[in-house]
């Protein structure tokens, strides 16, 4: 019995000894995990800032390239005469927001200058304008570094030089503008700069092109304006530095190769406010766990859950940034083409009126050009309305509720009665199962797809339009809308959901080709997908998936 008691006491002592050790190990493990969680949350915030900086740099490059491309096309029409007056140059560049402008021939000699500088006409200016020399010799768009203007006193400008062809040979147009006062400056201030931080555009010599701070009108180097930041940039493209006793984090991305660089800085206390608050709250939980010894497992579970949430958030942000970047490139190309067309029409008509009326043109002839200007202005308004609708759909919230898609389809079909007129259309609707979604957005999508079917069967004496469904992926239903009208060829199928692609006059935004693009955005925002199958003689079927109710 004594031996047994001795063994029991020994076992009890081991339990007393091991229990604190085990608990200390658990606390140490939890403390280490707590420290790791803080570093992980900060790293996630840094990575997000790097991605936002790269997306912003890509957008700036796309924006500048779009301006230059439009500038080249318009200059080949408006500045192609044998002689170009300063007044003509002022009219051409004023609408583009340029402060100073110059046109040179293929030898680099000045043909026209605004503001007027008669003493420089006929002189070779390539020596004092390096970006003009690059555009001339390499036949490509060239962007200058920031410089103090010789024709606009007390202003620092940046210029874009583009070569363009004329019947008299190649010419160069160079327009200088104040970046801080341009839409690009507004983008820096309103969209790029983080709360409490700053954004800088710096040229390859380290001079400030534009910033959300106020550097004054003269050219100033970043090393003078923000010396600590300039020194940090020489060490790496991203990192930390101190200024005025405060810690700052910066990221940078190249806008033009060997030229501009975008730099974004944010104070640690604002950048890491949310991660630090999360870290502090978790520390309180950990302290309570160490004192009571009852929530260690819960704390570990919480850490794992937070880590998974952080990873999922990073993946979602990455996907959203990539999709947004792709849309920016698509919009840049689409807007550059579609918005320029009515502007060019209005500009050309206005020039004809200015040159030939009164005196050389009758009132009836003048009215023709006035109607062209009004028509182009109306089209511009339609384009802007469509872009606003697309943007609002991107930002708006989805009110997900069970939706009776059968009843909704009947309501939409009844509302489209005016579009059908007296035509003989055989409409067939299956007993559609309900889905989960925003009823108003789905109503808009159905209206566009059914209106598209009505338009595509307009040449049929008796048309057939059917709405059905079939099994979809897990958790989704696949719906389909089929018509036996004129189908789409292979090239049209590739562009069917591209904004501003007018395959046929149909949809809510039939004049600008945004209807099917809006439908795709609506379905995508419901976590579904949409595709189309069609042949020129076999009709068209749109398929789309929606979550089950």
From TrEMBL:
InterPro entries: BphY/WalK/GraS-like, HATPase_C_sf, HATPase_dom, His_kinase_dom, HisK_dim/P_dom, HisK_dim/P_sf, Sig_transdc_His_kin-like_C. It catalyses: ATP + protein L-histidine = ADP + protein N-phospho-L-histidine. PROSITE patterns: HIS_KIN (PS50109). Residues 334-549 form the Histidine kinase domain. Its EC number is 2.7.13.3. Gene3D superfamilies: 1.10.287.130, Histidine kinase-like ATPase, C-terminal domain (3.30.565.10). It is found in: Cell membrane. One of its GO terms (molecular function) is phosphorelay response regulator activity. Signal peptide: none annotated. This is Sensor-like histidine kinase SenX3.
